[in-house]
Amino acid sequence: MSTLKLPLPDDFHVHLRQGDALADYARDIACQFGRILVMPNTVPALSTTESILNYKNAILSAAPNLEPLMTFKIHSGLTSSDLESFKAMGVVAGKYYPAGVTTNSEDGVSDFESIFPVVSMMEKMGFVFSVHAEEPNVFCLDRETAFIPKIKTLAQKFPKLRIVFEHVSTAAAVKAVLEMPSTVAGTITVHHLTMTLEDLIGDALRPHHFCKPILKLPSDREAIRKAAFSGNPKFFFGSDSAPHKQEKKECAYGAAGIYSAPVLLPILVREFEKENALDKLPNFIAGYGADFYGLPRTTREIQLVKKSWTVPNLIHGVVPLAAGKTLEWSLL
Ligand code: NCD
Ligand code: ZN
Fold it and tell me: What are the phi and psi torsion angles at 308 (to 5°)?
């Protein structure tokens, strides 16, 4: 039977939620990943040392082998002493959410320039600036493209700031990341790598494929695939695995977010294998992201085996990506 050994990957964009479910989601991601960048869009958001520390401890007590890389949610009221205490506890990044563009972003930023003083401190202190790049109040398919000038402004105004354009979903975003300086990188999800709007609304409404930023056109997916399979160090993996319970997705006002954690590596291996790019996979999942964040590359490994399995229809009350489908790579 064929097996595949890989470095134990990093996932630079994960939502773990709160309450009892947190332990379930943390254990699921820990089956395939060693380090994860933990998103701060809880309610209330992770914006104080106490909340970040409690959250980190909850993750560690559920999944002791997982290394959570903590983030804070950016708002204009953060002071230098807030940022210094984040730094002292090992927080690696601040996450910028424009107000109202995605799950739990009602408390996001509505005045872009109001955060410049915080951004300037982040630049000096070496925090990564992670951004949900969508412009509110723009037609849904155009929101990401409309946000690009803001990223360009930040890259120019704060030339030492490391910026991550999260979950690129358009050819325009890929192009922008390529054109901007080496301080700007992009993360790529499994769902934007494999699906388009067709999979959301083509034959039927498939709410479990609804996420922000929305799946886009075949030409966008092509650009994202090219970025991932080309082995360009500006692009690395961030799943944006974002679980919502079944009833929150299958209703009249469904939540945005795809629960991809249980199937990430089997799908990534399938896709890279299909493109004859398996040699590019280790850097995509365990190299370029660590380098960009200034972290040592992992020395741990994980093995997969070519043995088919069927993805469960429901995991902890959540319908995962590829539910009911057969995948040919399994974790050993
Ligand atoms: C995420 C969530 O559910 O927290 N949803 C999503 O559609 N991606 C938030 C986010 O990363 O946008
Ligand atoms: Zn996310």
Answer: -75, 150
CB atoms within 10 A of CB 261: 29
Write out the DSSP string of 64-108: TT-EEEPEEE--TT--HHHHHHHHHTT--EEEE-BTTSSTT-TTS
Is residue 332 pLDDT above 90, yes or no? Answer: no
Domain of 73? 8-297
Q: Is 54 within a domain?
A: yes
Indicate yes or no: pTM above 0.85: yes
Q: What is the layout of strands, in order, in the sheet containing 235-237?
A: 71-73, 93-96, 128-131, 162-165, 184-188, 235-237
Q: For residue 73, report the phi and psi dihedrals to the nearest 5 degrees.
A: -90, 130
Instruction: Confirm whether 316 is domain-assigned.
Output: no
Q: Which atom of ligand 1 is nearest to the CA of 41?
A: 4
Residue 187 pLDDT level (bands cut at 50, 70, 90):
very high
CA of 38 to the centre of ligand 2 (A): 9
Residues near ion ligand 2 (Cβ under 5 Å): 240
Task: Compute the distance from residue 105 Cα to the ligand 2 centre, in Å.
Answer: 11
The residues facing 320 across adjacent strands are 259
- Asked if the peptide bond before residue 207 counts as cis, ω within 30 degrees of 0, the response is no
The total of structural domains in the chain comes to: 1
The pLDDT tens digits for 72-100 are 999 999 999 999 999 999 999 999 999 99
Q: What is the pLDDT of residues 142-178, one digit of tens each?
A: 999 999 999 999 999 999 999 999 999 999 999 999 9
Nearest CA to ligand 1 atom 4: 103
> How do residues 190-217 score in pLDDT, each as one tens digit?
999 999 999 999 999 999 999 999 999 9
Whether 329 contacts 263, CB under 8 Å: no
Domain assignment present for 180: yes
Asked whether residue 319 is assigned to any structural domain, the reply reads no
- Please check whether residue 241 is in contact with residue 29, taking contact to mean a CB–CB distance below 8 angstroms: yes
Q: How far is CA 182 from CA 153, 156, 160, 179, in A?
A: 15, 12, 10, 9
pLDDT, average across residues 248-266:
98
